[in-house]
Specification:
CATH topology: TIM Barrel
Low-confidence stretches: 20-25
Mean pLDDT: 93
Structural class: alpha/beta
CATH architecture: Alpha-Beta Barrel
Strand content: 15-25%
Number of domains: 1
CATH superfamily: Glycoside hydrolase/deacetylase
Largest sheet: 11 strands, mixed
Distance between the termini: 48 Å
Helix content: 25-40%
Number of strands: 13
Length: about 350
């Protein structure tokens, strides 16, 4: 079974060949290298109180043991499942947002929709989030402001009507106030685009899977009104990871109950993909993801503690590497600063375009 590897494997081979012919150097940059680490969560609490209770109990203590170069604690981005919404959960999660432990964005499983049914559902859900201070507009141009992760990875009807059903979903999300999608990678799914290890822009063509390929983010090139940002995490064959013995590991940045995310070979592979804005190679973005409702024991456990410890030890020496814990919104802002030609310390650009949700 191919498990849809050929959706992206040719792109991986091209990356490997390019690395060989450039002697593995890619774009040269002056030290320090800045590593933006963002942890995005497909959060599905589904009214099961133990899932939320573990987060409220354990995450503040976990985060308190770690700090980045800027003196900031790890920041989680909870992409809260709108189709499983319980308002009392939003009220309790807000306490962690107010404490600076993270931010809330939008996750949504939906199926069989049309443009006529999609927008009313989205707007109703956004109004509920906004009642609690989330996803409010950042300016007067749109009625909301949010990042997005699609349920089952089926963005833009990529898995068919049972999972989405809206061929122009990207355009609808953009026009509703979505500033970027953080769904991918989607290992072993036909939803996975051919483009990998990139921050790139797509234009909705009215057909399914408009995000297959697009224009990579680049210094000096602004975003046009019809473009939409796709913000990817790492996807690669990790030739240093032979935990499965008969084949090398395929790395997609997933944090789950396997408790392997403290494996230094995995962490190094995330960094090595060098995801960022072309022309600003010293700023790289590492997006890992989890299902923190179902897998809360792993995500809030000792392996995550050790993962943060290794990041701080290996990638936060101050001279060669500086670590920055960021939310999805802050990562987006830093990308926009890079596109505008900003240099230096990315910590200065956490709120470059979009202010924090509770400050809008």
């Amino acid at each position: 079974m191919s498990k849809y590897l050929w959706n992206w494997f040719p792109s991986y081979l091209k990356e490997r060949l390019r690395s060989v012919f450039t002697d593995g150097r890619g774009d040269r940059f002056e030290c320090p290298r800045h590593v933006m680490f963002l942890f995005v969560d497909h959060l599905e609490l589904a009214g099961k109180s133990p899932r939320l209770e573990r987060w409220l109990e354990r995450y503040p203590a976990l985060a308190s043991r770690h700090v980045d170069f800027d003196g900031k604690r790890p920041k989680h981005t909870w992409f809260y499942a709108m189709d499983l919404m319980r308002e009392e959960e939003l009220v309790q999660l807000k306490t962690m947002v107010e404490s600076g432990l993270g931010e809330i964005e939008l996750h949504w499983h939906h199926g069989g929709d049309t443009p006529e049914t999609f927008l009313p559902k989205l707007r109703d859900g956004l109004r509920t989030f906004q009642k609690h201070g989330f996803m409010r507009p950042s300016d007067g141009k749109k009625s909301a402001c949010f990042a997005f992760i699609h349920g089952n990875w089926s963005l833009d009807n990529s898995l068919g009507p049972d999972f989405c059903g809206v061929d122009n979903e990207i355009a609808l999300l953009r026009d509703a106030g979505c500033y970027a999608d953080f769904t991918f990678p989607a290992l072993f799914s036909k939803a996975q685009p051919a483009t990998i290890n990139s921050i790139y822009y797509v234009v909705d063509d009215g057909k399914p899977k408009s995000y297959e390929r697009g224009r990579v983010a680049r210094v000096g090139v602004g975003q046009s009104d019809d473009e939409f940002m796709i913000f990817q995490g790492p996807l690669t064959v990790n030739w240093r990871d032979w935990r499965f013995k008969w084949h090398p590991g395929i790395e997609d940045g997933e944090i789950n109950k396997s408790n392997s995310h403290d494996n230094t070979r995995r962490i190094d592979a995330w960094i090595a993909q060098g995801i960022g804005v072309v022309g600003r190679p010293e700023w790289i973005f590492v997006k890992v993801f989890c299902h923190g409702g179902q897998d809360h024991a792993a995500v809030l456990g000792d392996a995550t503690d050790r993962m943060f410890t290794y990041l701080e030890k290996r990638y936060n020496d101050g001279a060669k590497n500086r670590l920055h814990y960021v939310t999805a919104r802050e990562a987006y802002n830093i990308v926009k600063a890079a596109e505008d030609g900003r240099t230096g310390d990315p910590n200065e650009y956490r709120d470059y375009v979009l202010p924090p949700p509770l400050h809008r």
